[in-house]
Amino acid sequence: MNDAELAAIWTGCEPEPGDIGYSFGSIVKLLMLTGQRRTEVAAMHWSELNLEAGT
Fold it and tell me: Helix or strand or coil: residue 41?
């Protein structure tokens, strides 16, 4: 994907007021930022994350 396509997806992930499925945009952004596959992120354990360090 080129920069314009990635920007369009990122913008499309922003929640609209009253969105019920707002968390799906956050998931897509996480996949874009990490470069991981959906199943890799879905199988991730909280112990693999460090929220204080942002890693």
Answer: helix
User: What's the rounded Cα separation, in Å, for the pair 45 and 55?
Assistant: 13
Burial (0-12, 13-18, 19+ Cβ within 10 Å), 10: middle
CA pair distance 54, 7, nearest whole angstrom: 22
Q: SS3 string of 18-34?
A: CCCCHHHHHHHHHHHHH
d(CA 7, CA 3): 6
pTM metric for this prediction:
0.66
Report pLDDT digits (tens) over 1-55. Answer: 899 999 999 998 888 777 776 678 888 998 999 888 989 888 889 998 898 998 8
